[in-house]
Write a structure and sequence with these properties.
The complex is a heterodimer of chains A (138) and B (521). Chain A has seven helices and two strands. With 138 residues, chain A is mostly helical. In chain A, helix 1 packs parallel to helix 3 and helix 5 packs antiparallel against helix 7. Helix content of chain B is 26%, strand content 22%. Chain B starts with a strand and ends with a helix. At the A-B interface, helix 2, helix 4, helix 6 and strand 2 of A face helix 13, helix 14 and strand 17 of B.
């Protein structure tokens, strides 16, 4: 099953809580701006303090300009598993949250860490912020 | 018995078997080891039984290197020494600290941890620390577990807090010992040596009111701290122009301090069992984060530990008084030591509160978690040019004062960065939270508030090779058969543990050695 960029973005908005109990996505649950599009609505559920998330995303994009497209970021988050986003076991917010959470922990474990304003973040979570930032300006 | 040196007859000569100079942790430990023996011990103490500004000012000197505390506020110059206000933090050195590490120049002790362990156990008694145990595996208190960190790079270690103020705890014992004669207000000035025998023949003692007397002893033990030990050796230059024990220009070199750095913030992902790190367990043991020996080797970094302090403590601490310098100031203002004891260990750097607040909003979901400052105590890499030398200016007793050129640099900076990253990896990989490195101050390349931990080490370093060290493995000054040094000045490397427990262990070991030497000699 082919997963479109939009479908992916809608999917990740379901990550209200990640299995780690602490991922950037899961923790961005603060007050934020109300937005109107379906995509933005979904992201807002995820990133309830969008200004801060955008700051992180913008900084990540500044440090990694080669990843400055939604397509590139989507690929980076999905990794080499092109079917990643289409797997049955990822269906449903909780299953996917667990998977993404595991991916974030795996990032740390394998040293796929980026530093943004001093914070050590998993590349996956920083890219999710970057994705959010890009969609705001898309 | 206690004797006021100012009441000794001018030009008197006191005879003893053992002359200990300095009644701090090392000197008092040594003296106690000889109580009840057949040896006549002379214990010389510059101060009295209470703090005295005039005596304290004898520590005055210059700093010409990295910004450091005024030298006359660092150590206490009266009976009990700096244990009168120490925090009691105690932990043995790690096995890796004793070895030669290819990435740490000048590393390696002529001892191994196993050589010192029996003395650490005895030192536990002196410091009233209870059972000798620093293993988290032995931490049976389920209410205070360690963090379940990912991987084996970062471990939880334990440290303990000694309740002992040596000056108070052992005052009566020393005073009542028939064979221990403690001379208060008595400043050792210079060692006189006999060039034919390579021995110290006597030590000249002076009082601030101008009196002079001498102590003739079979052996002499210098136990006045990492700076003053150097000062006495270098001022003893009547026979050897470069100072005593300084044939290879090593006395005063390799000055080391533990770097105290508020280096990062740890933001837990959820309520974590932090009791072990913050309040300790039922056995008064506290947890701290350390790199494993394997990680130190792999990363080629120094030893370091990170203690965790809830951010909520910070404002309170700051309001009372931050750190030991303030404690000294309080002491000078006649505050009670009890009033200042609690906050002595809580040194916290000034941080960018606004930045922290902003990111707290992003990274936490509510107010159930608190953030923790990671306050590091870092090993100082031995540096040939980090040193204590004599100044031309003299003190009231006629001794040349000291100049301290404290240096550290790339190895320490690398250690801080790698430690932050490894902790971030260990907690992130376990889903335990995130870590933020505290940015440097834009000037020094360090986070704000980097300072020494009041531990002065390395200036009479230990080596079996006289060309590489001032004392041998028995703490005897190379080339001077009856002169010994006790204290952290003999440490060839500092490790990251606070030094007092090791000072006490080495002092007990030295006492055992001297008992043998004196019985057979």
């Amino acid at each position: 099953m082919h997963t479109t960029r939009r479908a992916f973005l809608v999917k990740i908005t379901g990550l209200a809580t990640l299995a780690t109990g602490y991922s950037l996505a899961g923790q961005l649950l603060m007050k934020g701006n109300k937005t109107t599009s379906p995509l933005s609505d979904g992201l807002s559920r995820l990133l309830q303090h969008p200004e801060s998330a955008r700051l992180i995303g913008d900084e990540y994009l500044r440090q990694n300009p080669e990843e400055g497209s939604i397509r590139m970021l989507t690929q980076k988050i999905s990794g080499t598993d092109t079917q990643y986003l289409a797997r049955d076991d990822l269906q449903g917010p909780r299953a996917e949250a667990t998977s993404i959470g595991r991916q974030i922990r795996d990032d740390f474990w394998h040293g796929r860490i980026t530093q943004i304003d001093g914070w050590y973040l998993a590349e996956t979570e920083a890219r999710m912020c970057a994705l959010f930032s890009l969609q705001l300006t898309a | 018995m206690f004797i006021d040196g100012r009441k000794i007859e001018d030009k008197a000569v006191i005879e003893a078997d053992i002359c200990i100079i300095g009644a701090g942790a090392a000197g008092i430990t040594l003296a106690r080891e000889f109580i009840g023996s057949s040896f006549n011990v002379c214990l010389l103490e510059s101060g009295g039984l209470e703090f005295d500004e005039e005596t304290q000012s004898l520590y005055n000197g210059k700093n010409i290197g990295y910004p450091y505390y005024d030298l006359d506020v660092l150590r206490l110059r009266y009976f009990g020494g700096t244990t009168n206000i120490w925090s009691g933090v105690s932990r043995p050195l790690d096995a890796i600290d004793f070895g030669v590490r290819s990435w740490v120049p000048y590393s390696g002790w002529p001892l191994e941890l196993a050589d010192l362990t029996p003395f650490y156990r005895r030192a536990h008694g002196t410091c009233q620390l209870g059972t000798y145990s620093y293993s988290l595996a032995e931490n049976k208190d389920s209410n205070a577990p360690g963090l379940p960190l990912k991987g084996d790079s970062i471990l939880t270690t334990l440290y303990r807090e000694s309740p002992v103020n040596f000056g108070q705890a052992y005052r009566d014992e020393i005073k009542n010992a028939d064979n221990i004669h403690t001379y208060l207000f008595s400043n050792a000035l210079t060692f006189e040596t006999d060039p034919n025998t390579s021995k110290v023949s006597q030590v000249t003692v002076g009082t601030l009111d101008g009196k002079r007397f001498r102590v003739k002893s079979r052996v002499y033990i210098l136990a006045t701290g990492g700076v003053e030990n150097v000062r006495l050796l270098l001022n003893s230059n009547q026979t050897y122009s470069g100072g005593l024990g300084n044939n290879h220009d090593l006395v005063g070199r390799f000055f080391m301090e533990h770097l105290s750095i508020t280096g990062a913030v740890y933001l837990p992902s959820q309520v974590q069992p932090m009791q072990l790190y913050v309040q300790g367990d039922a056995s008064e043991r506290h947890g701290a984060l350390v790199p494993s020996a394997k990680a130190q080797q792999r990363e080629e970094i120094l030893n370091i530990y990170g203690a965790l302090f809830p951010s909520s403590l910070r404002s309170g601490v700051k309001a009372v008084a931050p750190g030991l310098v303030s404690s000294m100031m309080a002491l000078r203002a006649n505050m009670s030591i009890d009033d200042i004891g609690e906050h002595v260990r809580r040194i916290s750097a000034d941080l960018d509160d606004l930045t922290l607040h902003t990111y707290r909003r992003v990274f936490r979901s509510g107010d159930v978690q608190r953030e923790y400052y990671i306050v590091y105590q870092m090993e100082h890499a031995p540096d040939f040019n980090s040193r204590v030398t004599l100044d031309t200016e003299r003190d009231r007793l006629g001794l040349q004062k000291v100049k301290l050129d404290w240096r550290f640099g790339d190895m320490e900076r690398k250690t801080l960065r790698r430690m932050n990253a490894m902790i971030a990896q260990a907690v992130g990989g376990a889903g335990l939270g995130r870590v933020r490195e505290i940015p440097d101050d834009g000037n020094s390349g360090w986070p704000p508030g980097v300072r020494g931990a009041w531990h002065q080490m390395g200036t009479t370093r230990m080596s079996q090779d006289p060309k590489k060290g001032v004392v041998d493995a028995n703490c005897q000054v190379h080339g001077v058969s009856n002169l010994f040094v006790s204290g952290s000045s003999v440490f060839p490397t500092s490790g990251c543990s606070s030094p007092t427990l090791t000072i006490v262990a080495l002092s007990i070991r030295l006492a055992d050695h001297l008992k043998q030497v004196l019985r057979t000699g």
